[in-house]
């Protein structure tokens, strides 16, 4: 393959500069030796199912499918690979109990890939989302090693580039055993680029389970301001106070993202003049208007109690937090416009009407007022949450069935 030969030449040309730059930016050379294919692997792990998520986001997304794979194929070993140091940290933190080996994925150069494959002898390799590696695809095809993409997606920008270079990428895509796309739109993009076996699997991010809430906060229509960051509590409190005048029955459960901000948030609540309580005191809305969720690990199940939720981290540069934690309970979501961490999820929810992106405080107030006053509108939002999970759920099951076809 000409690409493999040329890429190898490029590697040796840039290698000295790469190593020098790595002195000043250590993450550039993190796992360098391992990525070249030099690592020790216990012989009993050969023939493993290999999962590859480049960085933190992909690694987290793969966790549930990795656990289900281990449960389904209990006789198979699992190797989890990442491409970044933060991805390695995440994999070790979250999957040390299920992965038999955690390492870096090789560089996309023939000699690195061949060393990796000769050592691991994988039964199948599963990559996440948009990772197209031309040499990996070519060499695994040549060695008859199944190569899959799960939760496959292509952004519009990437698609336009691939389309212009379709003479190259169509050959790359044909080397994949199967591409399981996260949406019908992504499936059509892959097919138009020349992929052979492409199917719609649903979205792995929607494969979450509702948690049973084991506490009661009392009466009232509860609004949750979840995972709020500095500046958002100050923003949301006046909105709630104004809404409270028109809708006396509403209550507010406010959950700061970081525990160290609890005293600061408590002061903001006190300034409202409304009676408030703390979850750690087991306070309830029977005699409180606001409760601060000052515990860890309870916000996810608390969403089941709310009327609708405002998801924080979206009115600053954080990039938002996971709206599906509320949507899984059929609760409408309001978010600020900074949502790059969950852009694809928000697009699905917003297109269906399960979530609403607002650009400022006034839009936030108006959307909240509409949910509180318009029962038809509110019910449509609830139905849209259900629809989102009906369309995009069961992705893990689909992927596992595909693995059964390949491995059995």
Quick take:
The protein is of the alpha/beta class and 408 residues long. Helix content is 47%, strand content 15%.
The tally of domains stands at: 2
**Count of β-strands:** 14
* CATH architecture type of the largest domain: 3-Layer(aba) Sandwich
Based on Cα principal axes, name the global outline. Answer: elongated
Strand order of the largest sheet: 3-2-1-4-5-6-7
Span of the ends, CA to CA:
31 Å
Percentage of helical residues?
A: 40-55%
Average predicted local confidence, pLDDT: 93
The tally of helices reads: 17
Specify the biggest β-sheet. Answer: 7 strands, parallel
Poorly predicted parts: none
- For the record, the CATH class of the largest domain is Alpha Beta
CATH topology of the largest domain: Rossmann fold
CATH superfamily of the largest domain: 3-Deoxy-D-manno-octulosonic-acid transferase, N-terminal domain
Tell me the radius of gyration: 24 Å
Percentage of residues in strands: 15-25%
Structural class: alpha/beta
Key words describing this protein structure:
single chain; 408 residues; alpha/beta; Rossmann fold; 2 domains; seven-stranded parallel β-sheet; 14 strands; 47% helix
Give your account of this protein's structure.
The structure is a single chain. By secondary structure, this protein is of the alpha/beta class. The chain folds into 2 domains: 33-204 and 394-407, Rossmann fold (3-Layer(aba) Sandwich), CATH 3.40.50; 221-392, Glycogen Phosphorylase B (Rossmann fold). Helices cover 47% and strands 15% of the residues. It starts with a helix and ends with a helix. The relative contact order is 0.10.
